[in-house]
Amino acid sequence: MRPSPLKLLVPSLLLTVSAAAAQTTAPSPAPAASASGGMGWLWIILLLAAVGAAVWYFGFRNKSSGTSSVGVDRDRVAGSAQQVKGTVKDAAGSVLGDAKLQAEGKLDKVEGKAQNTAGGIKDTLRGQ
């Protein structure tokens, strides 16, 4: 299962915010330096807004449909990726002489073909 972009983004966002907070909480030596302190928080807010927009755009937009933006079923894309992974494993197994890796590669290729075929059937039924 593929981790969601949100799960990958939250730890890095927390590190960024904590590092920025640690830098902005240092005591200022002069009153002139405190005038620019508000600008640091503005950048953090803008960064959080941009990250939130990116997470929404890439993570939650068009989740209800089972097709990608070009109209191809996600099963076809995943099946093709599985076939490529199987081809690489099969080739690596034959080069290294590893029969187990070669068998896994052949199994991945068959699974990918089946998933790709299922996606093609869905596309045909949908009329695309």
Key structural traits:
mainly alpha, single chain, 128 residues, 2 domains
Overall description:
- This protein has helices spanning 5-24, 31-34, 37-60, 74-96, 99-126.
- Helices cover 77% and strands 0% of the residues.
- It is mostly helical and 128 residues long.
- The longest helix is centred in the C-terminal third of the chain and has 28 residues, at 99-126.
- The chain is built from 5 helices and no strands.
- It has 2 domains: 5-60; 74-126.
- Helix 1 (5-24) runs antiparallel to helix 3 (37-60) and helix 4 (74-96) runs antiparallel to helix 5.
Topology:
Layout: H1 5-24, H2 31-34, H3 37-60, H4 74-96, H5 99-126
**Low-pLDDT segments, ≥5 res:** none
How big is the Rg?
24 Å
Shape: flat
Tally of separate domains: 2
Number of strands: 0
Q: Percent range for helical residues?
A: over 70%
In short:
With 128 residues, the protein is mainly α. It has helices spanning 5-24, 31-34, 37-60, 74-96, 99-126.
